[in-house]
UniProtKB/TrEMBL annotation:
It comes from the Bacteria. The active site is at D78 (proton acceptor). The keyword Nucleotide-binding applies. It catalyses: ITP + H2O = IMP + diphosphate + H(+); dITP + H2O = dIMP + diphosphate + H(+); XTP + H2O = XMP + diphosphate + H(+). Signal peptide: none annotated. Binds 1 Mg(2+) ion per subunit. It comes from Roseospirillum parvum. Belongs to the HAM1 NTPase family. This is dITP/XTP pyrophosphatase. One of its GO terms (biological process) is nucleotide metabolic process. Pyrophosphatase that catalyzes the hydrolysis of nucleoside triphosphates to their monophosphate derivatives, with a high preference for the non-canonical purine nucleotides XTP (xanthosine triphosphate), dITP (deoxyinosine triphosphate) and ITP. Seems to function as a house-cleaning enzyme that removes non-canonical purine nucleotides from the nucleotide pool, thus preventing their incorporation into DNA/RNA and avoiding chromosomal lesions.
Length: 205
């Protein structure tokens, strides 16, 4: 059986369909040298669509498709933290656990409280998952997923990165993503893994 061909990205402008400045920064870094002009959804005043999908891929696809309204291809990221002892929570609700003020100190503490409520014992194994969707204005979509395994540590450590980074210690490392140099995080993160798949398929030459 023939594997379906991926559509190469040949345009000059790409919209990063995210309203999270931490993500936009990481994605722009990962796209460096591959795209001439990168615009963000926020800068184009694109609305933040409701994330009604029941998978990371479904949400990434709906965010990417919504952002093609500006007439350019758009790249969206839907990601989250899945904790084994919490049956995969917060998962798709990772952003929502931070509440309307996007307070991640609160969200990380909620994770700690939920683990305590279940009398879960360390090591608290978890993974970050990232789905990337690249959509074109004609409706074509390419989507890829990446993960990184690790354990959770409390109290949170480090002020690099964003979101749940200060409690996530990737397997094989003694520091959290919050303590890690951004370049080191980019070399191993769930986002970097998904990016590797995306670039091999759509930015290969
Ligand atoms: O939907 P957009 O506009 O892209 O921004 P968002 O912050 O709402 O993003 P998601 O819906 O994908 O929610 C994912 C949440 O998971 C967390 N997350 C994802 N990747 C992360 C990373 O690399 N480090 C720490 N936390 C991460 C972070 O808190 C995000 O807010
Ligand atoms: Mg979101």
């Amino acid at each position: 059986m023939q594997t379906p061909a991926h559509r190469p990205f040949r345009e000059t402008t790409l919209v990063v369909a995210s309203h999270n400045p931490g993500k936009v920064r990481e994605i722009a870094e990962l796209l460096k040298g591959r795209v001439e002009t990168v615009r963000s959804a926020g800068e184009l005043n694109l609305p933040e669509p409701e994330e009604t999908g029941d998978t990371f891929i479904a949400n990434a696809v709906l965010k990417a498709r919504a952002a093609t309204a500006a007439g350019h291809p758009a790249l969206a990221d839907d990601s989250g933290l899945a904790v084994d002892a919490l049956e995969g929570a917060p998962g798709l609700y990772s952003a929502r656990w931070a509440g309307p003020d996007k307070d991640f100190a609160l969200a990380m503490d909620k994770v700690r409280q939920e683990l305590e409520a279940r009398a879960a014992e360390a090591p608290f194994t978890a993974r970050f998952v990232c789905a990337l969707a690249l959509a074109w204005p004609d409706g074509h979509v390419e989507a890829f997923e990446g993960t990184v395994e690790g354990t959770l540590v409390f109290p949170p450590r480090g002020d690099q990165g964003f979101g749940y980074d200060p409690i996530f210690q990737p397997t094989g490392h003694a520091i959290t993503f919050g303590e890690m140099d951004p370049a080191a995080k980019h070399a191993m993160s769930h986002r970097a893994q998904a990016f590797r798949r995306l670039t091999a398929a759509c930015f290969a030459g």
